[in-house]
């Protein structure tokens, strides 16, 4: 058997234009479902209020009014950014690829002269573009109206935050791709999907700041998993939990995880193509 | 020039079957079992077989989405699986039961996106799209999202999508499945034009043998993973003893049906006024002349052999 390697080819301008067209098409696709977007933002906002009240109650009971080092205004900001990031980074995306593998529709993806992982990534970045101007901005605006939120003090925080959210989206995309790709082997990927939802919700900083956990566990999560780089890092960047240099290092960590996870997704995809059985006639 | 060159193609699948209360046994099943095939440039080939015969498996191996277990495969001179991405630019594929279009986008936008995906120069794209718009009458529904199209409209869109990059080979897997009569005629008419133009090689898989009769001069029949016929339709009829039939209606019944060497009486109606003959070596003309000499004929019809009967016999064999 020939060795399987995942190499990242340098894209030319035509390739970049093609991926840009795929991203633009996906942006338009999401823009067609406006009612779904409004419903999702409403739900995000309702849960934002619930989470905010719970975490502020925790902070109220803590010494100095700060929970795990987050004062009240930063804690409220953390919650509302998390609500915005949920739909932007898209942790709980429907298992579209897994469903295409199960039904055999994935054959249409494999018959195109593009790398499936990169084509799906381009599409996800198109979705990200639409979500960034709707599902990220609006919950934060709702939070700002109802609560006293923290405004970043350093100008560099804003570009760092944008880069961090983009990296979080790429890392999350690659994680989801890997979870979905289990369908190549299992056909029914509901087990891995449920596992992903449970783990990513609890350990990405989505449900609560990871600083609430014991320090050794938090350190292990940062060093050994991509999970904190999905929600915790971009949220911490915006609430300026650490000095700018430390946050820049965190974003660099996101870039590294994005590269590692994308390479893993490409490797798995190539493995899958060697043994894939397109379902149905 | 040979565009598709297949020798000894084989695909084995491992299936697990129950072999006891708690035991399962792995069994190897050959879905394709030593297929040889050579298709010349510009040819339109009918590739048929019963359900589970290995047609779609062959197509998947030819298009590079399925690894062959053994054998030699070249499509446009390329080994499909390792060169899948390069090959994809040179082939077009339509799966009647799947879609390559973007479900939520208007058809027109799917075409534009495919221009980028296949890197087709804008002028070539415009020229081809204009051609297919006219031929397949796409303008009436090109601005509708794909999910709102009827099956017939979608299939016309699928055919255009598969051809917009100017492929050398087009693989069609049941392109008329589920279509109404009018849509079938539109698709067949389009494929006939494509065949007559002669610059696209087409492999057509279908269960609708009318597609084959109208479009393909050459027919490959596969059963249990093996090629059981490769040749013209006429050769298939000869080989499996298809016979033309002559049905005569008489003014008065005959005491005994007229006998002619090379023709066999198949049936006589209860009133004796209608006799059906199967022609072996005799001609219809000779039989009619013989009958006219002894009886008054009211009507005569010559019935061509039915391809469905021949193929059904072949499948059963």
UniProtKB/TrEMBL annotation, chain A:
The chain crosses the membrane at residues 38-63, 75-92, 128-147, 159-187, 194-224, 244-265. The keyword Membrane applies. PANTHER family: INTEGRAL MEMBRANE PROTEIN, SLR1174 PROTEIN-RELATED. Keywords: Membrane, Transmembrane, Transmembrane helix. It comes from the Bacteria. This is ABC transporter permease.
UniProtKB/TrEMBL annotation, chain B:
It is found in: Cell membrane. It is a peripheral membrane protein. Transmembrane segments: none annotated. The keyword Transport applies. Its main location: membrane. One of its GO terms (biological process) is response to antibiotic. Coiled coil: none annotated. PANTHER family: ABC TRANSPORTER ATP-BINDING PROTEIN (PTHR42711), ABC-TRANSPORT PROTEIN, ATP-BINDING COMPONENT (PTHR42711:SF1). This is ABC transporter ATP-binding protein. It comes from Planosporangium flavigriseum.
């Amino acid at each position: 058997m020939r060795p399987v390697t995942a190499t990242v080819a340098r894209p030319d301008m035509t390739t970049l234009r093609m991926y840009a067209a795929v991203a633009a098409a996906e942006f338009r696709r999401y823009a067609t479902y406006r009612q779904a977007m409004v419903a999702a933002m409403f739900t995000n906002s309702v849960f934002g209020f619930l989470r905010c009240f719970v975490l502020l109650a925790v902070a109220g009971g803590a010494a100095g009014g700060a929970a795990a080092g987050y004062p009240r205004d930063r804690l409220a900001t953390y919650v509302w950014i998390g609500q915005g990031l949920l739909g932007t980074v898209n942790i709980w995306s429907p298992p579209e690829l897994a469903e295409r593998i199960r039904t055999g529709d994935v054959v249409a993806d494999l018959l195109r002269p593009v790398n499936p992982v990169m084509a799906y990534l381009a599409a996800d970045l198109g979705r990200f573009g639409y979500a960034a101007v709707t599902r990220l901005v609006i919950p934060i605006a709702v939070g700002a109206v109802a609560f006293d939120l923290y405004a970043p003090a350093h100008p560099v925080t804003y570009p760092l935050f944008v880069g961090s959210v983009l990296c979080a989206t790429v890392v999350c995309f690659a994680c989801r791709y890997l979870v979905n790709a289990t369908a190549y082997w299992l056909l029914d990927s509901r087990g891995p999907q449920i596992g992903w939802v449970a783990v990513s919700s609890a350990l990405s900083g989505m449900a609560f700041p990871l600083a609430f956990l014991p320090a050794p566990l938090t350190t292990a999560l940062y060093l050994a998993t991509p999970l904190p780089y999905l929600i915790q890092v971009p949220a911490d960047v915006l609430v300026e939990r650490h000095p700018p240099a430390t946050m820049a290092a965190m974003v660099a960590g996101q870039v590294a995880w994005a590269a590692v996870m994308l390479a893993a997704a490409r490797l798995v995809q190539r493995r899958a193509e060697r043994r894939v059985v397109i379902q149905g006639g | 020039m040979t565009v598709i060159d297949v020798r000894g193609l084989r695909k084995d699948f491992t299936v697990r079957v129950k072999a006891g209360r708690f035991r399962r046994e792995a069994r190897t099943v050959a879905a394709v079992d030593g297929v040889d095939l050579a298709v010349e440039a510009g040819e339109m080939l009918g590739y048929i077989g019963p359900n589970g015969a290995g047609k779609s498996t062959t197509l998947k191996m030819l298009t590079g989405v399925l690894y062959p277990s053994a054998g030699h495969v070249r499509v446009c001179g390329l080994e499909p699986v390792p060169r899948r991405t390069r090959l994809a630019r040179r082939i077009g594929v339509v799966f009647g039961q799947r879609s390559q279009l973007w479900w939520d986008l208007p058809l027109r936008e799917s075409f534009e996106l495919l221009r980028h995906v296949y890197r087709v120069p804008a002028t070539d794209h415009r020229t081809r799209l204009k051609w297919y718009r006219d031929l397949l009458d796409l303008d009436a529904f090109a601005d509708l999202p794909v999910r709102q199209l009827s099956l017939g409209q979608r299939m016309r869109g699928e055919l255009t999508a598969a051809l917009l990059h100017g492929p050398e080979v087009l693989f069609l897997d049941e392109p008329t499945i589920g279509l109404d009569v009018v849509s079938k005629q539109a698709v067949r008419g389009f494929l006939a034009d494509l065949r007559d133009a002669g610059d696209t090689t087409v492999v057509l898989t279908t269960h609708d043998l009318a597609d084959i009769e109208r479009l393909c001069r050459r027919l490959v029949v596969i059963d249990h993973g093996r090629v059981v016929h490769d040749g013209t339709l006429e050769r298939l009829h000869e080989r499996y003893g298809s016979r033309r039939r002559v049905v005569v209606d008489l003014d008065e019944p005959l005491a005994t049906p007229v006998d002619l060497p090379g023709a066999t009486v198949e049936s006589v109606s209860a009133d004796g006024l209608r006799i059906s003959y199967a022609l072996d070596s005799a001609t219809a003309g000779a039989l009619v002349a013989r009958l006219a000499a002894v009886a008054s004929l009211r009507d005569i019809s010559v019935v061509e052999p039915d391809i469905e009967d021949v193929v059904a016999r072949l499948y059963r064999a």
